[in-house]
Amino acid sequence: MRFLCIDTSAGAGVGLVDIDQSVEVLAKEVIADQRRHAEALNELIRRVVKQGSGKELAEAGIETIAVGTGPAPFTGLRAGLVSARVIGEVLDARVLGICSLDVLARQALDQVRDRKVLVATDGKRKEVYAGLYEAAGPDDVTALWGPEVGPAESFFNKSRGEDPFIVGAGAELYPEALPPSAQLADTLDPVVMARIGAARLAREAGGEEVDFSSEPLYLRRPDIHPGVAAKVAAAQKGRLGLLNE
Q1: At what angle do helices 100-111 and 190-205 cross, to 10 degrees?
Q2: How far apart are CA 132 and CA 207, in angstroms?
């Protein structure tokens, strides 16, 4: 199965991945700059798909689109979700919403086995988005709680008894409250998102109910006027005219 993976919860990450009996990374690219990642996203998608398949988006054989649902601030997250939904509709590909904290947790668990992981990302307003996780097999995670938003101190106290491994940009920002356990990468890897998506599709095929909602996890009211939200969606749809090129 060929996955196009998109996440704009912090910067922008795009990957083209084939998963059958093994994971084959065709192409991936990550932009860490959070100031212009929404504007750069569609060119990033085009570039990754062309590099990975040798073809344009409409002919690249994409069957499934995995997209990060946050939590994250409004504008950047919305750009990724709109792009995923539009591409999914045009290609008749299924869209799988995956919590971005789940992906960061799985990345950490690939390196820190047999531990629980507390993921904390930058929630702005001197807060963090956080969740506590444990492994669910080699490619997925289970959220013990979260995602939630609040002061870093509150999540340290909440997880104190679990002695978790602490990772994420939020821990780097507030080390006095959430001392990071190691210098692991806090940039989301879109390939790990594909692994989670494939694992959850397998569970669904086995009869388990799996939530693939692509509704965004803002966790608080966005600081944006509804009219601006409509403009963001319209702009992304317009830029995605690349599907017909």
Answers
A1: 100
A2: 26
CB 169 within 8 A of CB 183: no
The domain segmentation of the chain, as residue ranges, is: 2-206
Question: What pLDDT score was predicted for residue 224?
Answer: 46
- Print burial letters for 220-234: b (CB count within 10 Å at least 16), e (below 16): eeeeeeeeeeeebbe
* CATH class of domain segment(s) 2-206: alpha beta
Tell me the per-residue pLDDT of 70-112, one tens digit each, with 9 for 90 and over: 999 888 899 999 999 999 999 999 999 999 999 999 999 999 9
Q: Among all chains, which residue has been given the structure tokens 């069957």?
A: 63
The burial class, CB within 10 Å (0-12 / 13-18 / 19+), for 137 is exposed
